[in-house]
Amino acid sequence: MSTVDPQQARREREARFRRTPLALAMTVLGGLLVVAAGAVGGAAIGQFVLVFRMMNLNSVFSHSPDPDTALWAAPVAVVGTLVAAAVYTRWNHRWSGRTSDVAGIGVLPLWLVGAAAFLWWTTQTQWPAPDRVGTEVDPTFGHDQAWSVGDWVWYATVWLLPALVTVFAVLACVAGGVTRLGRGSRRARLTDVLQQGSRTTGEVTAVSGATTPDAARTLLRWTFTFVDLQGVRRWVERTEGFAPGEGPELGRAVTVLYDPARPGDRKRIFASTGKGQDPEEFLRPGTT
Asked: Which of 12, 45, 179, 267 gets the highest tally of CB atoms within 10 A of its CB?
């Protein structure tokens, strides 16, 4: 038993890190770890593709040595990515004070940048050349065979593979930028409603489930209702991600912010399952 609200105590602890040099340094370190994990992931992908590339381009009787395989790369990439992503997002949230999104570049673009950079390096400097370009050389029986169209595709993977991952990295960065613009617009609307809107108490009328302590966020479909200044009752349905212990409960009161000039505008209606003292309580993944 405790006389202190644990969620409030946690928010106060996190607030002490906001905009501090330590939080910024750890965020940068976490980002570098994500890039490094992406590089290891690129090594695992590159080794996998290289094995099949040489199997297709060289004869089964080739005297060329088989490419070295780094069996450790794949498991290290998986574990390293999970750890690096956790460090980066945790300290990013602490530095920015946000809980619903990441400030700056997201985890996926950073990971893909690391993977693309490593793949460009390893394919251009480390991958062995085939025995003879255009021909499967058979040094044992002399039955040389010309490459097929598929073999030429495998030959081109020395450029295609890093180029493809680079395209994914660029698309992830562009998608992240578009997402950040949407989040910025959402925060601007919230700031405006906090300054000029009305605050009232609503009620949860439907919820699809409950949060779980095993997940950082649980996606829930829920509905809440409130009465505006004109006495009109309104219902709002949303699908959002909630942290453990912060999900809506059927019949529970919620704090509602809305624009009295446009009470029917869903984009200018925000709800918090807590006391609504922190603006971050009104923003969650999925909030429109």
From this structure: 45
Distance, C-alpha 200 to centroid of its chain: 34
Say yes or no: 144 and 13 in one domain: yes
The span from the CA of 126 to the CA of 117, in Å, is 13
Question: Which structural domain, as residue segments, surrounds residue 258?
Answer: 197-282
pLDDT one digit per residue (tens) for the chain, 288 residues: 456 566 666 666 766 878 899 999 999 999 999 999 999 999 999 999 999 999 999 888 888 888 878 889 999 999 999 999 999 999 998 898 877 778 889 999 999 999 999 999 999 999 999 989 988 888 888 888 999 999 999 999 999 999 999 999 999 999 988 888 888 888 899 999 999 999 999 999 999 988 888 887 889 999 999 999 999 999 999 999 888 888 899 999 999 999 999 998 999 999 999 888 888 888 887 766
Q: How many domains does the chain have?
A: 2
